[in-house]
Amino acid sequence: MxxxxxxxxxxxxxARPLTDEEIRxxxxxxxxxxxxxxxxxALLMAIYFNGxxxxxxxxxxxxxxxxxxxxxxxxxxxxxxxxxxxxGVGDKVSLILAPLVASCGAAxxxxxxxxxxxxGGTLDKLEAIPGWRxxxxxxxxxxxxxxTGAVICAAGAGLAPADRRLYALRDVTGTVESVPLIASSIxxxxxxxxxxxxxxDVKTGSGAFMKDFTKARELAETMVRxxxxxxxxxxxxxxxMDSPLGWAVGxxxxxxxxxxxxxxxxxxxxxxxxxxxxxxxxxLAGIDADPRAAIGTGRALRTYQEMIRAQGGDPDAPLPRAxxxxxxxxxxxxxWISRLDALAVGTAAWxxxxxxxxxxxxxxxxxxxxxxxxxxxxxxxxxPVVELRADDPGRFAAAKEAxxxxxxxxxxxxxxxxxxxxxxxxRQ
Length: 428
Ligand code: URA
Fold this sequence. Notes:
This protein has helices at about 5-10, 20-30, 35-50, 55-65, 95-100, 120-125, 140-145, 160-175, 180-190, 215-230, 250-260, 270-285, 290-295, 300-310, 340-355, 395-400, and strands spanning about 80-85, 110, 150-155, 195-205, 235-240, 250, 325-330, 335-340, 370, 380, 385-390, 405-410, 420-425. Strand 4, helix 10 (about 215-230) and strand 5 (about 235-240) form a beta-alpha-beta unit. The protein has three domains: about 5-65, Transferase, Pyrimidine Nucleoside Phosphorylase, Chain A, domain 3; about 80-315, Nucleoside phosphorylase/phosphoribosyltransferase catalytic domain (Pyrimidine Nucleoside Phosphorylase, Chain A, domain 2), CATH 3.40.1030.10; about 325-410, Pyrimidine nucleoside phosphorylase-like, C-terminal domain (Aldehyde Oxidoreductase, domain 3, Alpha-Beta Complex), CATH 3.90.1170. Helix 2 (about 20-30) packs parallel to helix 4, helix 5 (about 95-100) packs parallel to helix 11 (about 250-260) and helix 5 crosses helix 12 (about 270-285). The longest helix has 18 residues, at about 270-285. The strands form four sheets. A four-stranded mixed sheet has the order 1-4-5-13, with helices on both faces. Strands 6-9-11-7 form a four-stranded antiparallel sheet. It is of the alpha/beta class. The radius of gyration is 22 Å and the shape is globular. The chain is built from 16 helices and 13 strands. The protein binds uracil. Uracil (URA) binds near residues 167, 181, 182, 185 and 186.
């Protein structure tokens, strides 16, 4: 019979990999309360330093999935395909993509979490819509997926509950930033959700969770391999997150921009990422359709409206608007914007009230930042580059502090850099 101290020492010393049986035992014993939180924390720290090899990671993710229920979506009369983003600033792609891909014939079961820190959460954004509710029962999820094809809702407590406990430990022990622990955390939830195919948007750059490209690639490769090992057809795109995606950063303001995009007037950078992700999702679902046509005909917008109504929301209701607005970040000279730092803008939106510091904090639906100009655009000296929005004007000073140094203006236009950097596919 394994014992946890032996497992901790084996990982601490990098002496040998853990066996499948030891990992299965560990999770079962942790669930029974026979392994204490401090012992699990010590093991997580040993993994942070010494990693998990491919076989350990497969068993680790399998144990996380087996800790809860696995949704069975096989009765849905459409191919299932989902997308997951590692999180970025102004990343409202899911709001457009889920109804867009559903309107082409797929079922998109997007079970999501909430935002933490400078990147916003999809559920927080949708909750800005009057009446919209994030929680659905499993039978409501199945029914909506069959009818509308798209569901964006809160992942229930039954999906990979071990991840919830482990993430809480990692959060307070400095062990979040580990590729195998992040990969198993994200993929255990996506695999348990029951989707047959998955496209991952792994962001890299100042506003991303993985700022470093090499680490982002390692995470993408690890997640693609885990997906394939668990029979989920998986691809990953590594995309640039150095400046905000689109114009709006916040909750209601991002919903508004997503609707504008579904009407066919979305900003170029947002649409570039959305269409590439849609093409890969449709390819994995085996559907031959043009996502641009789904926007052009209004089909994607109609699916969005159905999706919102199915969860009690009124897609035509006015969205909350902040009581105060103030322009900021004046261009220091005339020239072309070569940098508008995503992390700084995300932090400003967060300080205005759009995001939360702890997971129990409320968010303001109306707070946020609107970019008035973006990299590649010409500005004249003194021209404000962002507009800050908040209900509490006392928040403007801290938001402006976050924006110090966020802007670079150059005498020449910056070289265009594609947003999609690399595609990672499963090795055959
Ligand atoms: N998101 C997750 O779901 N898990 C992690 O470990 C990190 C980001």
